[in-house]
Amino acid sequence: MFPTFKRAALPLATAVAGLALTTTAIAHDDSDPIPVKVFIASMFEIGDNTGDRAGEFQRWYENYWQNAEPVEVRGATHELYCNDAGVCGSVLGMGKVASSSSMQAILLDPRYDFSDTWFVLSGVAGTPPSQGTIGMVSWATWLVDYDLGHRWAAEEGKPGEPLFQPREGYEDIRVYQLNPQLVERAMALSADTPLEDSESARQYRQRYPDEMARRTPFVRTGTHMTGDTFFHGPGLSAEAQYMTELYGADDYVITEMEAAAITQVIDRLHGTERIMSLRGAVNFDQGNPNETTQQHLDPAPGNTAGGFAETVANIELVGSRVVDDIVDHWDQWQNGVPTD
Questions:
Q1: pLDDT at 60
Q2: What is the CA radius of gyration of the chain?
């Protein structure tokens, strides 16, 4: 039997502080950050993560996180999911503010290590009929922010001249060129992906005279135009193209809401070399020659494009080829884009 000894009583504050330090140390020692190989971001889900009509996240969830436990991240709009292979993902929310604030909350969570992570920013989008079609999937070469500048009404400028002027001070965040080697590698892995299509989309395409608009779904690259404003019609489409040319980017092929803002957040912490933006077109950003912009924005029953379910499937079909290659050949990807 061990002898007992009397110990002088410690002040309560000192005892509590010591306990807190001990608890913190134990928690830190027992929970090394989880390394994330790939992070997949979606912007919205329609209902549940599985078993109902699929939004942007469901196909990813069903492929990678069926058995994963949801993890609440303070400041993020939705739970985070991770599998044992190091693939994590979440729904970030629609628009620049919701998506970028969720991304920052996740990146700053000390339970996860994003130092070697490859990011796939995915979702549905629009496309100009001269550059894409319903069901098409695109890897971004450039991200342009549509909103950072000055605009004025057409009657307040000279006829035929642009209605947009960049605002000084945003040079570093209004346009991002994504890693060309990464885009090339993503295309090499996914360009021949068999894509889904629908009869409604096939019929809808025939309303447009553009050769691109009439194509069956395919995979391509180009600039993605990011804006909280749902710009629409041939006039604003021409303005968006003017902006890409002004910034020295490629032709714009996608209109979406979030990627430039999310990229700004990732760039502050980890740079842009490991960011991929992947979008699938579910609508044209302007009407056909026989309808006004307002008619296209508010179509009569039976006059919608269709193909939404097929497009969200195509996004995951294309993106998973790159995600799986990263995981399966992590020794080649960990330090950068493979060169072989």
A1: 98
A2: 24
